[in-house]
Amino acid sequence: MTAIDVAVIGAGPAGAVASRQLALCGYRVVLIGPVPEVPRVGESLPGAARPLLRDLGLLEHLERSLPQACIGNRSAWGGAHLLTHDFMVDPHGAGWHLNRARFDELLREAALLAGVQWWRERLGRVSSSTDGWQLQWAHKSITARWLIDASGRASIVARRLGVGRVRDQALVAVYAWAQSDNRDRRTLIESVDKGWWYRASLPDGRCVAALHTCADHAAAIQGCRRAWLEQLEGTRHLRSCLDSQWSLPRACDASGGQLRQWSGDGWLAVGDAALAFDPLSSQGLFNALYTALRGAEAVDKALQGQLQAAESYVSVLHSVRQAYLRQIGYHYRREQRWPNESFWQERNGYRER
Question: What is the pTM of this model?
Answer without folding.
Answer: 0.94
